[in-house]
Automatic annotation (TrEMBL):
SUPFAM superfamilies: Nucleotide-diphospho-sugar transferases, Trimeric LpxA-like enzymes. Pathway: Glycan biosynthesis; glycogen biosynthesis. The record marks Q70, W109 as: Could play a key role in the communication between the regulatory and the substrate sites. The gene is glgC. It comes from Lamprobacter modestohalophilus. This is Glucose-1-phosphate adenylyltransferase.
């Protein structure tokens, strides 16, 4: 049974404090982050991006979690309050919100990832962890952090970096790591123009996942030193890690599937094209990320909604969804939805056609609309007969954003609509 379920829950995870850095702007997601931070962006039909690292913590047995917020955090804060209040404080379990609050100086917002931790050292000390797990709040993956913490302890590391293998041509968007044959970090370069390849594999580079395990005292020492460092950008990838590898034992933890040993699923949905592709991947018969895994559930705020409904069934109009995921509260009324993902409370009216698209909550698709290769944001009201994704020039002329990959983004603001609701 232990081999079938390799989850690692022990004293190590119970004595670990997780810090989720959830203040990112996510500017490459364009207008999707106009009113919300990247971790608050909806994903997968009913979740938000931040639910994935939070669920990984809970499923790993880490139940002391601080969520560090900054940029346009209101919708993120509401989501955490509504969906993550089930832990028991009397047992020492919590998900705490740590907003930027000028704890060390006036006008001192979080200047970087390391500075965000530095400004909360007094809170971290009050929880007295043995280990501190620092996580990015804006990536999609399912990971048991227990084995990583165990390897960190067994290797005698001061710091361990979670890493994945990526194609060298894509590695310029990551922190790239060079290691020796013991997996000890020899070099770390943030977003290099010419990434270093893995020995013996010229087409592959080793990239940081933005996941770090620290010994508590080592973390304190490093962020305090960084805070006093003239010219530092106070970032783990740009400043703290490159300095640490010169003097301390910094190791890597390759993130692999525990059963097959193959590279595990991990996505940075930081662009419109990546966000669109990662959502539509979920529709496949055997998707690379399963949301139906009972042993590794993704927790979230669960709205109380009626089932999805499909109405009308005659030769003139038929409400149907093919090769799609449709969430609760949706009504497909005499329309066709094909290879698309619909979040909750979407209404698709008669004779409309939605294909290869991601439709976020509370969208109303008018009669006769045609939507192809699009992302439609919260609360959009698409007028009757509107065509989206059918002609790039028409979309641009209408003021919509079209990505390099040809995905059209629609938001209420781009349509000239006013929304008085939190998104």
């Amino acid at each position: 049974m232990a081999e079938e379920n390799p989850r690692f829950v022990s004293r190590l995870t119970r004595n670990t404090l997780a810090l989720i850095l959830a203040g990112g702007r996510g500017s490459r997601l364009r207008q999707l982050t106009q009113w919300r931070s990247k971790p608050a962006v909806p994903f997968g039909g009913k979740f938000r991006i931040v639910d994935f690292p939070l669920s990984n913590c809970i499923n790993s047995g880490i139940r002391r979690i601080g969520v560090l917020t900054q940029y346009k955090a209101h919708s993120l804060i509401l989501h955490i309050q509504k969906g993550w209040g089930f832990l028991r404080g009397e047992f020492g379990e919590f998900v705490e919100l740590w907003p930027a609050q000028q704890r060390v100086a006036e006008n001192a917002w979080y200047a970087g990832t390391a500075d965000a931790v530095f400004q909360n050292l007094d809170i971290i000390r009050s929880h007295d962890p043995e280990y501190v797990l620092v996580l990015a709040g804006d990536h999609i993956y399912q990971m048991d952090y227990g084995p990583m913490i165990a390897q960190h302890v067994e290797s005698g590391a001061d710091m361990t970096i979670g890493c994945i293998e990526v194609e060298r041509e894509r590695a310029s968007g990551f922190g790239v790591i060079s290691v020796d044959d013991q997996q000890r970090v020899q070099a770390f370069v943030e977003k290099p123009a010419d990434p270093t390849s893995v020995p013996g594999r010229d087409d592959i580079a080793l990239a940081s996942m933005g996941i770090y395990v620290f010994n508590r005292d080592f973390l304190f020492e490093q962020v305090v030193a960084d805070a006093d460092m003239p010219g530092s950008s106070h970032d783990f990838g740009k400043d703290v890690i490159p300095r640490a590898i010169q003097r301390y034992r910094v190791m890597t933890y390759p993130f692999r599937d525990p059963h097959s040993g193959a590279q595990a699923y991990w996505r940075d949905v930081g662009t419109i094209d990546a966000f669109w592709e990662a959502n539509l991947e979920l529709i496949g018969v055997t998707p690379p990320l399963s949301l139906y895994d009972d042993e590794w559930p993704i927790w979230t705020y669960q709205e109380q909604l009626p089932p999805a409904k499909f109405v009308f069934d005659n030769d003139i109009r038929r409400g149907m969804a093919v090769d799609s995921m449709v969430s609760g509260g949706c009504i497909i009324s005499g329309a066709l939805v094909r290879h698309s993902l619909l979040f909750s409370n979407v209404r698709v009216h008669s004779f409309a056609h939605v294909e290869d698209s991601v439709i976020l909550p509370n969208v109303d698709v008018g009669r006769g609309c045609v939507i192809r290769r699009a992302i439609v944001d919260h609360w959009c009201r698409l007028p009757e007969g509107m065509r989206i994704g059918c002609d790039r020039a028409e979309d641009v002329a209408a003021g919509l954003y079209v990505s390099e990959g040809g995905v059209t983004l629609v938001t209420p603001e781009l349509l000239g609509q006013t929304v008085n609701r939190v998104r």
